[in-house]
Design a protein that fits this description.
Layout (H helix, E strand, L loop, with lengths): L13 E5 L6 E2 L2 E2 L3 H15 L3 E5 L16 H10 L5 E3 L6 H9 L5 E3 L14 H12 L4 E4 L10 H5 L6 E3 L1 H14 L6 E5 L4 H11 L5 E4 L4 H7 L14 H14 L2 E3 L3 E5 L8 E5 L8 E5 L1 H12 L3 E5 L12 H12 L3 E5 L1 H9 L9 E2 L3 H8 L5 H4 L4
Parallel strand pairs: 1-4, 1-7, 4-6, 5-6, 7-8, 9-10, 9-15, 10-11, 15-16, 16-17
Antiparallel strand pairs: 2-3, 12-13, 12-14
Helix pairs in contact: 7-13, 8-9, 10-11
The structure holds adenosine-5'-diphosphate and magnesium ion.
Adenosine-5'-diphosphate binds next to strand 14 and helix 12.
Amino acid sequence: MQTIRDLGDLRGKRVLVRSDLNVPLDDGRITDDGRIRASIPTWQQLLDAGARVIVCAHLGRPKGEPDPQYSLAPVAERIGELLLDVDVSFAADTVGDDARSSAADLPEGELLVLENLRFNPGETSKDDDERGAFADELASLAEAYVSDGFGAVHRKHASVVDVAQRLPHAAGGLVRAEVEVLRRLTDQPARPYAVVLGGSKVSDKLGVIEALLGSADKILVGGGMVFTFLKAQGHEVGKSLLEDDQLDAVRGYLTTARERGVEIVLPTDIVAAEAFAADAAHEVVAADAIGADRIGLDIGPESSSAFAAALADAATVFWNGPMGVFEMEPYSHGTRAVAQAMVDSAAFTVVGGGDSAAAVRTLGFDENAFGHISTGGGASLESLEGSAPTGLAVLSD
Ligand code: ADP
Ligand code: MG
């Protein structure tokens, strides 16, 4: 994988950087600028090398056309506040007249932020030609490309994959740091290696279990994913999250785990509520006694203790997906217990996933107490599955 140094002398050169600036916004106000701050060192390295830096990114899920609520203008403004010594400008479009003239006139050592990539249908198009045409326009703005948006690196998008094929390219510092951490997880991890899986994107995540059965020593399952396991064991799961079509696959995972000596730790108790609401009546029930009209929204206290105990002797821990609906206080305790166990552990601990990282922050944990908090859940899971994310593979060509 090429690094920024491999791009050679960058003085005066225009460098297009794909960053991950998908920050949470509340009425146009940035509520957490973590991703912007994390992106600064790569831009700074390029600016220090004398480059003209052109930053592109997406925000939210606009539908391939301009939508003011997803404008990157507030992000550009925040970048200007954080990079005090640098002139930061903003183009009102991505590859249109403003972007082209602003990029052409951009002085050395200054930074230009382009408008949201996803205001253009070509960015996310499934059609190679449409994506390619948009990538041609993006590539024409610059003489080199740096991939630094780890959160998007598993997406087959124009700014991630196609542009890299059109310009001299390199991985930025953020992407390199993530790749390094993932290597520590996949290439002879310190043992015991424990993985905690939860969250709500169940079908996305079940696949990673299969790969982990070949590398992890224990897999702890919580969150919305657990009900597919409980159901596979023949238990009632009520109205809880369930992937009916994955039951056979899950039974297969349980068998493989037994054969290979991988310990699968499932909760023994569940917080079952009458409705998906913070103020709904709820109680702790045995995991095999969830009422038909109940929704499981967290692992119970007995399970929290068992999960913490299972993590205590681990040397490596990877965690993706909250144990419950942590956004609502009554269902946040399982997630808190896992986070606390990781903080207390001497293991190399990695948190992957947007919501898992947000949970760590909103529950008041010090991010520095973890070995690494990844900015990209999907990309880290794909790497653990053993397939290099599409946007990383292209950087090695
Ligand atoms: P990540 O972003 O860390 O990869 P996901 O996006 O898969 O995690 O899932 C995060 C979401 O999962 C959270 O918003 C949380 O409320 C939800 N969740 C966790 N447990 C449950 C559950 N038992 N039922 C429904 N949703 C759940
Ligand atoms: Mg998520």
